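for the writeup, i need someone to sanity check this before i put it in the appendix. the sequnce is what the collaborator sent (i think, or maybe the updated version? ugh). structure was predicted straight from it, no edits. if anything looks off just tell me and ill rerun, i have time this weekend
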Amino acid sequence: MVHYENPRIVVGAVCHDGPRLVLCRRAIPPRIGFWTFPAGFMELGETAEEGAAREAFEEAGVHVDIDRLLGVYSVPQRGQVHLLYEARMRDARHAAGEESLEVVMRDWEDIPWEDLAFPSIRWGLELAFEARQQSLWVPRMTSSSAPAGTDAN
């Protein structure tokens, strides 16, 4: 019998409500007390996007719409592949889940860079920041708030 050991897939979402981001202080090992955006292992039977949205709800109590893939990172020393997404919050509600000590909304300039839990959290935030600087950040738009002359669909 052949037994394969395959990498685990980690899905995460840089969740935003306009200019503010969701950050979670970890309540579980490893790196208890350090900051992260919602992320965790993908489960069987879900898409990567569904997994990222599920993690956002489980860890931060936020309902999100996944907008786009920010980056894919191979972390061979941990046996992982990370899929990091940008996600818009449907509303500003948030609450700490079982894996979070607290959940906060932070402006970009208030990100605690020295207290981030993992390198992948820094990578995802840097990609999101770069997208924002290049006007690639997906704005929150509904048909009622779309600027005149634009198609909100």
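Residues 119-133 form the longest helix (15 residues). The beta strands are 8-17, 20-26, 35-36, 39-41, 64-75, 80-89, 100-107.
thx in advance!!
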